[in-house]
Structures are given as structure tokens and as C-alpha cells.
Design a protein that fits this description.
Elements (H helix, E strand, L loop, with lengths): L2 E8 L6 E3 L2 E10 L4 E7 L6 E3 L9 E2 L3 E7 L2 E8 L2 E10 L1
Antiparallel strand pairs: 1-9, 2-8, 3-7, 3-9, 4-5, 4-6, 4-8
């Protein structure tokens, strides 16, 4: 697989950032301490964000380190953090 686009979202820089869309792998790690974080994308109104679903239709929310496969539309994405700290979330497009 070759990467054709990527973004990195963190506690210090949670976004939003533009992602070119397509199939992607989302990797996330944090100091969770009972908290979590979610990948959110901008909705059609251009200002509201909603939690992105993974390929199986489940929310892309992390309460432990891991990976999820997603299909993303081109657009703006950010992380929404719920008490987790030191969040690092990478979204990497794959062919």
C-alpha cells in the first residue's frame, strides 16, 4: 500500500485539517486515564462536526490505543477529546 495523503492531529493541535478523502487507516494513542477521543468530520453545513464511522459503521472513538479503517470524504477533520491527554491521531490514506 502506498500513502497518498496524511494528517496528524494532537492534543496541542486538534485541527481541523484538510484530508483528501478515500480509504484510510486511523491510528490513535493517548494517556487515556478513563478518557477517550474521537475523529470528527465537518458536516454539510460547513461548521458542525460529527463523529466519523469506521468501515463497519462504528464510531471512530478510541479509549485504548489502536487502529481503525475508514472511508472518508474530502474535507476537514479534527479530534474531539474527552479527558484523555497526550493524544496523537494519525490518518493515512491507503490505495
Amino acid at each position: 500500500m502506498s500513502a497518498r495523503g496524511s494528517i496528524s492531529l494532537t492534543s496541542a493541535a486538534p485541527g481541523p485539517l484538510y484530508f483528501p478523502g478515500g480509504r484510510a487507516i486511523v491510528g490513535g494513542i493517548a494517556t487515556f486515564g478513563g478518557g477517550s477521543f474521537s475523529l470528527e468530520g465537518v458536516l454539510p453545513d460547513g461548521s458542525t462536526f460529527g463523529i466519523v464511522p469506521d468501515a463497519a459503521g462504528n464510531a471512530v472513538t478510541f479509549s485504548a490505543a489502536g487502529f481503525k479503517t475508514v472511508y472518508l470524504a474530502p474535507g476537514m477533520y479534527k479530534v474531539a477529546i474527552t479527558t484523555a491527554t497526550a493524544v496523537i491521531c494519525s490518518v493515512v490514506a491507503v490505495d
